[in-house]
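Risk register update: the risk of archive-format incompatibility is retired. Evidence:
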Amino acid sequence: MPWDPFSGPLVQGSPSGSDEGRGDAMGTSGFTKRRSVGGVLTALLGITVMSVVAGLLVTAGVTPVVALTGLGATNAITVFENLPGYLAIDKLSQKSNIYATQNDGTPLLLASFYDQNRIEVGWDEISSYARDAVIASEDPRFYEHGGVDAQGTLRAALTTAVGGVTQGGSSITQQYVKNVRVQKCELETDILLQKRCYNAVTETSPDRKIKEMRLAIGVEKKFPKNDILRQYLNITGFGGTVYGIEAAANYYYSTTAAALTLPQAASLVAIVNNPAKFRLDNPASETNGAANGYAVNKARRDYILREMLRYQKITAEEFRAARTTPVEPVIQEPSTGCQTARGAAYFCDYVTNLLRNDPAFGADEETRLLNFRRGGYDIYTTLDLDLQRAAEETIAANVPMEYPGWDVGSVVTSVQVGTGRVLAMAQNKLYSQDPVVTATSAAYTGVNYNTDYAEGGSRGFQPGSTYKVFTLAEWLKTGHRLDERVDSAREANWGTFNDSCRGPQNYDAQNWNPRNDAGESGGNYSALESTLGSINTGFIGMAKVLDLCGIRQTAESFGVHRADGDPLAQSAASVIGTNEVAPLSMAVAFAGIANRGVTCSPVAIDRIVGADGDEVPPPESTCSPSVAPSVAAGMVFAMRRVMTDGTAQQSWGATEPRVPLIGKTGTTDGGKDTWMVGASSKVATVAAVVSVTGEARQRSISFASGPAATARHRMWPFVMSVANAKYGGDEMEEIGPPPVVVPVSDAGDTDDSTDDADD
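Archived output:
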């Protein structure tokens, strides 16, 4: 199944700010059950003991030995001696981003992935209004206490005990500790263990409070106040999957944390108190929506403004101006998942699958998935936006997303010669990983037709006669010449083929009798003539002279493999293209031919930068010789003439500006799949129209743009024209007999690659 990096478990709404409330008139609301006298005394004594302990810890900086009996908090207090005084703080979970690079060198965001939408920022990147709003409303004595505000805790205990609104009295540092502990729970991959951990660190109990006090004091001893406040604003939740002040500013007000105005900052800090209640992304809410000016949030916001005025964080003039400013969120939905990359979604999907398989992200797939979604990586890809736009545009113009009675697919993939960098990847579908959506229409799919099954792709398509170039390579590699002829007449019994891996192979009992697309007799074709005319029987005659195992091994040396992961078949039929392969594999192979026989494995990532700014080594291309340069030069000689004098003339004639090009066409049995694959010395491109499921005879089908069977010859030159204009193209070394012009029965395409007759 394709891997969806945006799916996965999320912990129930993580608490962030003063979860119990701070006791102001706007903090919380609702019916409070009256307590009995005994209950009041027990609660009062228990929480008061915690307050006393907290005071002792703050003033003395050591853990007192407390021996009290008959109090509800006794057992909790005795654990002080064994509690750790330091909180190990892991990196904050941050979103990871995938980018393309624009022509001016600036990054263009394709998609983001996260469990928590967070962008960690520094002190100077946070508005002073936001910092002051948090202190004034959550912890006015933040810069005075040592981690636990004993005065505030005692006040909260008294208010709660006598039946007032439930109070927490937690300092900013205690809230920070709680959020860190919650985040540690969220890193747990086992859902049951994750829930248990979450319940333990969020339960309303003296034990939890005492632990947080001890840890808060340890944090205060190790970190400066400003660092604690900064990280509190980075870790705290702002509703849903929005975490941290920067992501909140982006999401709710389409701005940055540094640029927040006073009323915006107070409005966001209001959300911290109770994210579910005060968040601003439900305009239809009857209590806190657009119709009433987000009344609940505004009330909390105005309270915060009054507290800021009270503690002299703002002037009276600033207060009046901010209080009269309406709450008007400008929601900017974050980029989440590859669907936001639009036409480049399938390339994005390919990138995420590469990351899933990259050991740099962890020891196994599950770990890599979590690290990617939480690690705050910036992934800079190889995508060329000019070629990508051209690929998307030409597919949209030439192949519909749906066709009556036919599950039609179309792909365009481009690879840079000599580097393996994937420059473009598009198809004629809308990307979705939601099975409900994909079930509604054939226009949607989460399957990438360009790539292998293990990389989120399909199980491949027969490449037809484009596969014949590997028999040509083996032919030249074993010392045969382009002008050498073979017995290529159509036969019912081809006899025995040599196979050094499996032993001699004979197909006569199968009555195997492949025909040529235009009915050519094929009596005595040369290798060059068979290549230009894409003569099936000519290549079968060449294979009869060669070694089927050798042909398969030569194809593998160019990086060709079955998309489903099975070994390449090496029968006589496979010579003319019956193995199901991914279009990307064919683009890589043709790039290898254009690169003087050196094939470079595909890569889609140029750079990876971690959240700390350090470079992470990206997956690298491996370049290795597939054939000798002289063999590649012979292939180039033949394949250039396929463009100018053979079955690919239509693509050649529509490509502008002209640079030296090589190519090969492919049509499978009955016109089910049609391919055009070719390259300059700079870029290799595949354009194909395929049958995703079922079968169709493309030669009897027409789209709005023209015949389905020739759509490849409209798409390929469109993309390669952009590539030629941008990258140019050099002369490629050629070795061959003197140029010849061989009559071809159908200059548009006369290659039917499969082993059955085409009627």
